[in-house]
Design a protein that fits this description.
mainly alpha; 12 helices; rod-shaped
Length: 339
């Protein structure tokens, strides 16, 4: 079982949950909590100072007189101070804004929640009698079961009903915790399976990454070779372009001289136009004389034929002269033989 010191420690942790900073004292925290939980009651006792305002607010809520010595609340942690904090906890979880304070309790650690729930149940069961801690410890178990002040009153019955409701809610929460524990175990199993699959996927991704890196390296080398080849071809084209540009610059240097020559040739161009017109006239006349050309061509053909005939006749005449000479020689020879 949890000891009283453990419950007191849980109470202090609950109180520290609402501290504005690490240096804020317990009185300021308690006063602020009661002001938030019971603004109407706090408005009535705001004229009081120190712990008296806290005690008066709790008396207004529990509708009874709290026999508390203020001097015991200003020293170190003691039973009276712990009992007063228990009453504060029991009061704020029953105020109109109790849902906020209950949610704050449920956000704490399980051990702290258990201690605080035990304190709340004790407050709802015993009421303000928790302040008489030393007397309760000396009494026997039979006297501990005696009714505390206010038992049987409507306020006690309403708070006891609230206690039963909190107990039922606590039971439901425990069942939900069991269900959540099972779900957590199943989720843990699923998580392990997912982790194994994740490791396999990581190995697969590592292999794919290595393959992609190798392919990328190969492609990079190929692209680098293509890049170098392209650079070389572009360099050759650049050199060729530079050479052409140099030639064109040389030609551009000759342009002024050529322009001068063009200026000199312009008068000749005008003369050539006149010559072209004259040539056109002569050409027209030549076209008119095309018939004479045909006649001349026929005469030339006839003349050629006559020349051929003349040559043939001269050849025949030469042959005849030769035969005539031979005949004469034969006659002379015959005459000489006759003599």
């Amino acid at each position: 079982m949890r000891t009283g010191d453990a419950e007191a420690s849980s109470l202090m942790r609950w109180l520290a949950f609402y501290a504005a900073n690490a240096q804020e004292d317990c009185f300021s925290i308690v006063l602020r909590l009661l002001k938030l939980a019971f603004p109407a009651i706090f408005e009535e006792v705001k004229a009081l100072n120190g712990w008296k305002a806290v005690i008066a607010t709790l008396e207004g809520f529990y509708e009874t007189n709290l026999a508390v010595e203020v001097q015991k609340l200003e020293g170190t942690l003691n039973n009276t101070f712990t009992a007063l904090l228990e009453l504060v906890l029991g009061a704020v979880v029953q105020c109109e804004t109790k849902e906020t304070f209950i949610k704050d309790v449920l956000t704490m650690e399980d051990v702290v929640q258990a201690d605080l729930m035990a304190i709340i149940e004790k407050i709802m069961a015993q009421g303000v009698s928790v302040l008489n801690v030393e007397a309760v410890e000396e009494k026997s178990e039979d006297k501990q079961d005696k009714e505390s002040p206010g038992i049987g009153s409507p306020l006690y019955l309403s708070r006891n009903a609230a206690l039963e409701r909190v107990k039922r809610e606590n039971g439901v929460l425990k069942q939900e915790n069991v269900h959540l524990a099972r779900e957590l175990e199943q989720a843990t199993t699923n998580f392990r399976v997912i982790e194994l699959e994740k490791e396999k996927l990581i190995e697969m991704m590592q292999g794919l990454k290595e393959q992609v890196d190798a392919d990328t390296l190969k492609k990079g080398r190929v692209m680098h070779a293509q890049y170098n080849e392209r650079i070389n071809s572009l360099q050759l084209e650049l050199d060729s372009t530079k050479a052409e540009l140099k030639e064109k610059k040389a030609l551009a240097g000759r342009v002024p001289g050529l322009s001068d020559e063009v200026d000199l040739l312009r008068p000749l161009a005008e003369k050539m136009k006149k010559v072209d017109s004259t040539v056109a006239k002569y050409k027209a006349k030549i076209d008119e004389l095309s018939g004479a050309k045909d006649m001349l061509r026929r005469l030339e053909v006839t003349n050629a034929e006559l020349m051929e005939k003349n040559l043939a006749l001269e050849s025949d005449r030469a042959k005849a002269a030769t035969w005539q000479r031979k005949l004469k020689e034969s006659k002379e020879a015959n005459t000489a033989m006759v003599r």
